[in-house]
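A note on notation is needed here, since sequence and fold are reported together in a single record. The reader may check this reading against the record printed directly beneath this paragraph.
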Amino acid sequence: MRLSLPRRLGVAATAAGAAASILAVAPASAAPNITIGPGSEIDVVQKETPQGIEVNACTLGVLALTPDGRRVGVTAGHCGKAGQEVAVPVPGQSRTIASVGSIEKSSNPIVTDDGRMTDANQPDWGTVSFKPGVPLVNRLGKVRPTKVGRAVVGDQVCRQGRTTGWQCGKVADVAGNRVLVNLKGDHGDSGGPLVRLSDGAALGITSGGLELSREAGTQSEFFDLGFIFAQAGGLRLAV
């Protein structure tokens, strides 16, 4: 199960249905209170129609440095395709978002209508390039990564997601480049960071959830951050 949240957001000042939200788009320069960092809420624009704007609501994982020194964001690949616009909610302005950049690279895994990947072995990562002048911070709130680490079964960890917030638990399994944690995520958490409590190491990016059994319940799945950095062209954690 993927944990992005498809939403249709109206752009008019009239209701667009019970499941819709009214959305106004503002330039980032008109929203001085915006600061983007690990765990920030992001909205990836899927398409615009006369009825509204359809977005995937996701979470930013970490900020990273490209080989040429640019800071980019890292999130889940199923949140959007390369070239799609990325926006964030404007603090203090209800139902208003500001455009801050675009998806630069994406593994863009194929996801079915019920939120499942057609190929379970396909990577799930994406990077975000930001517009000049967008305020970026390498640590935000409780998410304060110090380095990139490798998860080990039993690690005490915490994750940040736009829907479930800050949750802590244990690493239940590590299989190749995937990490399972005994936490239940929700739609909108995709792309969010996983951090180890003992040393602040950033371990992974939220991809989805797996229901292993009735006894084990649903567990959150993450992609190893070191693997993502290598796949994305040699990124380094911005600290």
Residues 7-22 have pLDDT under 50 and may be disordered. Residues 179 and 222 are 5 Å apart (CA to CA). The chain has one helix and 18 strands. Helices lie at 225-231.
